[in-house]
Design brief:
mainly beta; 12 strands; 49% strand; Flavin_Rdtase-like_dom; Flavin reductase family protein; oxidoreductase; Split_barrel_FMN-bd
Length: 154
């Protein structure tokens, strides 16, 4: 599956122990009515327990200029939120990362254990689109173990 290109997202949520976040390349749009999204989280993920207890989350779509965020949220969980200049919180408590082209807030709609992962289905409750205020930024893409910049054609 390393040879299938995927967009890069970061999922963030609030937990009883503070903010939690992780890089996810399994994001998908499932339904327009109701607006449902999904992603997977591995049983071995340090964020899994918090994700399974969460009521809501935010999925950030990373731009090609945000490889540093993808790498930060793929490393040790203790380092992910240490730089307070990178994030703030919504009034609902979830952390949001500054400068992502788009983020969506969702409530947890369903959790489905599948193999060695859990499929998380979210019901979208809010969409924040920063692409209108900035020039077109291509997405960050993950392919064959490496992050790539995707160019946008005019």
């Amino acid at each position: 599956m390393r040879h299938y290109p995927a967009g890069v997202t970061i999922v963030t949520l609030n937990s009883e122990n503070g903010p939690v976040g992780f890089t996810a390349t399994s994001f998908a749009s499932l339904s327009a009515d109701p607006p449902l999204i999904s992603f997977n989280i591995a049983e071995t993920s340090s964020s899994r327990d918090a994700m399974l207890r969460a009521d809501s989350l935010v999925v950030h779509f990373l731009g090609q200029h945000q490889k540093h965020l993808a790498q930060r949220f793929s490393r040790d969980a203790a380092e992910r939120f240490t730089d307070r200049s990178l994030w703030t919180t919504l009034d609902t408590g979830e952390p949001i990362l500054h400068g992502t082209p788009i983020w969506v807030r969702a409530t947890v709609y369903q959790l489905l254990p599948i193999g060695d992962h859990t499929l998380v289905v979210g019901l979208v409750t809010r969409v924040h689109d920063n692409t209108q205020d900035a020039p077109a930024v291509g997405p960050l893409v993950y392919y064959n173990g490496v992050y790539h910049r995707a160019e946008i054609a005019d």
